[in-house]
What does this fold into?
Amino acid sequence: MNAAPAAALTYVYGVTPPAPGLDDVLSTLTGVAGCRVALIGAAPDAAGPPLVAFAVSDVPRAEFAEEVLPERFEDLRWLEATARAHHLVIEALAARTTVLPLRMATLYQDRSRAVRALSAQSPQFAARLAQLAAHTEYGVKIYVRGRAAGPDPDPAPAPDPAPEPAVERDGATGPSAGPGRAYLRARRAQRDADEDHHRQARIAADRVAAIARRHSARHVSHPPQSGPLAETGAEAAAGAGENVVNDAFLVPDAAAGAFRAAVRAAAADLPGVLLELNGPWAPYSFTAPPPPPEPPPPGRGPVS
It folds into this structure.
């Protein structure tokens, strides 16, 4: 095991059992900051083969040091590039073996400290990998569609320049309907449509929950997405509307086909709802907690 250069930190992508063919993958794999990816292992004892391994890169200390990371995470271009590189490494490994992804920017001062942390949790990691073997993550998002595109009703209709003429209705007289009443009717129709779309979203969510009970091993509910980072992908292109469900499911590979087909059909008769199925992914939502932070050097905070 080669030590990381003094000007580098050890960046950890995830945990994997050593598997045939991984060396071929790693030989062509580029990770975060354009750095090469390698496996470093932890053996159950001094004589045995590695039980689990960290996938790591030696990344520039100047770019990933603790004191600069808060500023880096404010840089959306850097954040997107780093997240994409992290994901590509995880997906490349997941194509060959089971992977336990760790959070982005899990860092150690050097490889020897990373190996010590790995060794301390090797049995737990091995057990978690065994539970995740032959399972894949899928995501389901449910959106409440907005009302059909068109001109908004005037939010403040101007008063009529003159009293409206009286009209006869069933023997009585009263003012004819003016722009104010038309505005109220339009707002009421919009409110009724929104309520119906939310009702349909609840129906879709109940159907997905029933499908998950039949076909998935575990389920995690994430907060609904909002803001600029959510405005990407198919949902943005379709003008999806409000995201009300953002769930992840751990699905046995043997049940994946049935799960996908059932989820895709769950909102087919619900025009007020957009249901998006994504995946398969490595099990990002079902990982063990990342390794605990190292004791910081004097005068410094934790590294990971």
User: Anything to note?
Assistant: Strands lie at 8-16, 38-42, 52-60, 100-108, 135-144, 166-169, 172-175, 218-222, 242-252, 273-281.
